[in-house]
Amino acid sequence: MRIALLLCLVAACEAATVEEVHEGFGPPVMRVARPTAPPRIDGKLDDAAWQKAEAVTLCFLDGLWEAPSQRTEARVLADERAIYFAVQCREAEPQRMIAAGERRDGDLWMGDTVEVFLDPGHRETRHQYAHIIVNPKGVVYDSKNKDARWNADLSVGTGTFDGGWTVELAVPMADLGVAGAIPKVWGLNINRQRPELGQVAPVKGIRGHYEKLKEPDKYREGEDTAWSPTRCHSSHIVQRFGHAVLDVGTVEVKPPERLFEVLFRANFDDGKAGPFEDAEIADEGFRGPGKCIRPKGGAGTIYFRHGIENLDDVTLIMALRMPQNGRLYYYGRAPDDEQCEADRHEVFMTTEEAKQRKFPAMDDYDTHGSMMAWKSHGRLVNFPGPWAVMTGHFSEPSIGSVMQPGTDWAILRTRLGQMRRQTSQGLVPPEQGYPKGLVFHAGREPFLIDDFIIFRGTDLEPPARVTGLKAERKGGEIVLSWNRSEDNTLTAFYRVTVGARGEPRLMAETHRLTLTLGPAAAAGKPVTVAALDLYGNASPPSEAVKLP
To answer: Rounded to two decimals, what is the model's pTM?
Structure first.
């Protein structure tokens, strides 16, 4: 089904080529056509050459399923001389745009920008790519392999239209080092940074605090978007760039050996804690009946004594339960024993608990830690299924903690390669690992951990088909139950539908393995259950059963 959808998105592409790249490199894939004549780089986007280019739409950088409020559309062409970009940015609040940076290679990222990432030949090596930023005034930042002294012979044009702004860009093949030997497949990403706005204030001490904004009406919601989501707050995840198939390419490119790799997983249903030191088994599970781990005695520290090497593109997902407003601290230790902490993560909470969660006022300005921005505590976003997700800084970013949103189970997702070294606050280097594993503690507060998985890459496979679906009357209610569905990562929730195959109607979505219905819940009609993960992969519906 994904391949069929992909082929629709890349209409007019040679299907075999796109299919091969999709299977070998994963989604998304873009065909880059060769223009008869190069487009004029004037920011108007009206050149006839762009009619040959497929339009792609940017989505949220962190992979959220909902659509951004401001649409961004991009097109790419390439010939022997250069690779060309046309980007149209819708903007409902042009008066709030910022064009930061007055000179080349300045701090353009402090304002509205379009960014291009180019990895010719798809080496997928951290920091080994070209990075070009353009702001609405046409000022550019360009670097190659993280070296801003690289100044390519760029052609840049920017413009405006009724409802937004535009960028056109040409990057010479010679400056990219591939003139005369152009790879057929490139790692490529097109990003737009639309930052939140507001005053800049210095960090004041170690303890966080809030200050009232002087001019809250000047603020807006920020949105970072990309053609290929990196599934975290950083755009610089080279393994998560999309895959461009260039018609003008002449050099074959081998796909990676694997797209996905499980480094460690445990669900504790076997009653064993494994490498979790100072942990004991508890009779509770993320999906209801089952087992999990907790600190010995109920509170304290759990040590995950399992070494993790090569942190690039590595993700941790786990289910977490604590008392409401409890804080879990978690970190790794580098080989030199420096503590490394997650200053950003995502917390998936049930929608019921999200409604009860109290957040700081929208006009409060948190100057805590290294995050000096509006709503630095993070923002709440709708997510499919029974979840709402809190993204960005959630509680105390500088010391790697997450605040439990309620009393039900939550899901925590962290990019381990995006942890920061405590002293320097810099990202962990690509060669660093956590030879001693990870540490989890919450002081005197109890906490539970279930469905713990560490993996490299992106989960492209759906969960297993749900089996064992039953519908029973118990008293005046109908109780549905089914077996657990396994997944490459985490089966995040189950979707229950009622009705014939041609007219299914959503009945409920839950992360548990049971669902209680009222006595008048469509008696006699067929019900099916499908399993979904956090990456949009869905299993086929289960065999149907009729409601009694």
So the answer is: 0.88
